[in-house]
Every structure is written in C-alpha cells, then in structure tokens.
Specification:
About 30% of the residues lie in helices and about 35% in strands. The chain is an alpha+beta fold. The chain folds into two domains: about 35 residues; about 100 residues, 2-Layer Sandwich (GMP Synthetase, Chain A, domain 3), CATH 3.30.300.20. Strand 1 and strand 2 form a beta hairpin. The chain is globular.
C-alpha cells in the first residue's frame, strides 16, 4: 500500500492521494484557518471507517436491514515527551433499521477484536472501547 502527499500552500496544508486516486486534505489543527483534517483526526476516522466496513459487511450477510449507520470516535491523549499520542479511543456506533441487537454487537466484537486492520494496528498500545446502539437502545 502506498499513498502520496503534496504540500498545497506555504504552511501545512497537504493533499494526500490514495491508490484509488481519491484525495484527502490534511492540515495543522492549530492554524487560524484550517483547510483539512489533522493527522490525529485521520487516525480516529480510520478506526471508525474500518469498523464500519466490517460491521456493514457482516450485517448485510446476515440479512439485517441497515437504514442508518453513524459512528462517533473520540480519542483521549496524554503527554509523552514532546508528543501527545492516543491513550484510549471510545467508539459509539449508532444503527437504525431492522437489526437484531445481538447480531450488531457480535458484528462489532468481530470487527474490533478480529477483522479491523486499523484497530489491530493499535492493539497493544491504545485501548479501544466500543458501544453499539440499535434503534436508540444500547446493546
């Protein structure tokens, strides 16, 4: 896997291009005008989107009808020398539709504990906690 980044202004704005040719704008979160997401936000987005792909795939195979899928990922950081890496991530998945809550929870368990390469990348260094809410009822 390979991506390319190109600086787009005189400051920190970068345009990242993936293998597919799709682009993402990345910027320094401390700028007066921020024109992209920060690298740390990208990590949170990676966890949320990777688990979403897994869960949607698993639930589709089980013929669960998802009418809405939303995810919120929050990262807790700590000071380590001069950096602030993530200590923990909290993922809240909100599903709506004709979905068995037990199947949704099992799909989340499989994603975070087995399939999601992004979550597995953080496995021994960042605690990832997750919660599944189906039709506004926590499972």
């Amino acid at each position: 896997m390979k991506v390319a980044l190109e600086r787009k202004n005189k400051d920190y704005l970068m345009e990242a291009t993936g293998k597919s040719g799709n682009k993402v704008m990345i910027d320094h979160s401390g700028m007066e005008v921020v024109q992209g997401v920060s690298p740390m936000e990208l990590l949170l987005m990676g966890v949320g989107s990777c688990s979403a792909i897994d869960m949607i795939s698993i639930l589709k195979k089980q013929r669960q009808e998802i009418t809405s899928y939303k995810v919120e990922v929050e990262g807790e950081r700590y000071l380590l020398d001069d950096s602030r890496p993530f200590k923990e991530m909290h993922v809240n998945v909100f599903l709506e539709g004709v979905i068995d809550p037990d199947k949704a929870q099992k799909a989340a368990d499989l994603s975070f504990e087995k399939y999601c390469s992004v979550s597995k990348t953080f496995d021994k260094i960042v605690a990832i906690h997750y919660k599944v809410v189906v039709n506004a009822s926590q499972s």
